[in-house]
């Protein structure tokens, strides 16, 4: 997609209960699991003051992605 920053791929291991909870939440929000995890990380980084608001492309998209 033009103008979209390159995405960094990283391996991720999750506790099965956490993975299932994230999957259900993503489904409720009409997002992919990947987009849901990115949104959760983005929101946590902003709250912790580790990422300025509007930083990193101002967050993941609000709709389905994958």
Automatic annotation (TrEMBL):
InterPro entries reported in the protein's UniProt record: Arc_rbn_hlx_hlx, Ribbon_hlx_hlx
GO biological process: one example: regulation of DNA-templated transcription
Protein name: Arc family DNA-binding protein
Organism from which the protein derives: Nocardioides faecalis
